[in-house]
Amino acid sequence: MERIVILGAGESGAGAAVLAKVKGFDTFVSDASIIKPRYKELLDRYGIAWEEGHHTEELILNASEVVKSPGIPEEAPLVVKLRQQGTPIISEIEFAGRYTDAKMICITGSNGKTTTTSLIYHIFKSAGLNVGLAGNIGQSLALQVATEKHDYYVIELSSFQLDGMYDFRANIAVLMNITPDHLDRYNHCMQNYVDAKFRITQNQTPEDAFIYWNDDPIIQRELAKHGLKAQLYPFAAIKEQGAIAYVEDGQMKIEQPIAFNMEQEELALRGTHNLYNSMAASISANIAGIEKENIREALSNFKGVEHRLERVCDVAGVHFINDSKATNVNSCWYALQSMTTKTVLILGGKDKGNDYTEIEQLVREKCSALVYLGLHNEKLHAFFDPMGLPVVEVQSGMKEAVEAAFHLAKKGETVLLSPCCASFDLFKSYEDRGDQFKACVRAL
After folding, report:
1. Which domains, from first to last, does the chain contain?
2. What are the residues whose beta carbons fall under 8 Å from the beta carbon of 355, sequence distance 6 or more?
3. pTM of the entire structure?
């Protein structure tokens, strides 16, 4: 019997373990951290052996294949040993893809992928299709493959997940954009990160579709390098060379594969970035053969994604917006670009090799003050302090940051949490960071 070892027992790891067990593998799960109770219960229910708080090498190095959770870096000592002895290491998505013939709609990009993924799922679900939501959001793809049967899966893919994918095929691949992110995991080499993103197109055939932002200079540069076989569906803000989706005369228009149009003001999501998200989602639904009226209805009633430009409330005439999911500089750029009032920006956290030059001009134009929220704010001070804006540094937590921002903001202004950074210095996750922000704002 082949032995499958799963490293990491979060959502993806626990799901992969269940699928391995159901498919008859000798299955073992190892997590260097403490496993959450709900995942322990799931593993126990299926009779899967597991350990937590450490890795027992003799129980791992004898694996036929290893499914590695995306949060575990390549330089982890155990991963290095497995590589050295030639043990195949794959992602949960790669593993799950072997056991389903469902159509795969896969979305990646430095920004916009969660909203686009959620919007595509909403359109497919609203149209009555048998669809699952997986990847970075939703339930583990492997667990769904093991316990359910869907005709379609809409999957948000990070670069880390794509790194562990080899034979997996996306029937519809969506690449929203590529800007610097996670460079600390890619030896601070942008090309390594770019190559990871383009893995979403590997194994595609002429029957498949590749949807991408036509104005992204990195994507344009890379197109010729990758020998793409899929049908290409580029989108852009305006009608231009090659774009099959664009805005013209106040309408979002799609030319292929079936002509589709919708009044821009009827879209539930506002802002330039959300226009791109709506285009990518519309093209995906169009390719899948969903009726035009179903697409229009879903685009008009979509509720948005929590922690992404989420309006919290107004306090004494000050608007508060939670954009905790902005874990890189480009996400913050889109948030600032959408602001219509002067803004007090809360930023900071675990820096991933950020270059703040991208938002420099917008900070000068839109911001009235800055709050640095993090344990190590030296880089923020060095870059932003010379602008001469009022600055408050907070290392203690969200309550103090919200109070500081509220004190700095004038009536009619906006307090925007859009951190540019990962959350792991002061918070459990970007969700935890956003939840604390909302709770502190409502307690003002």
Report:
1. 3-90 (3.40.50.720), 94-301 (3.40.1190.10), 310-442 (3.90.190.20)
2. 180, 329
3. 0.80
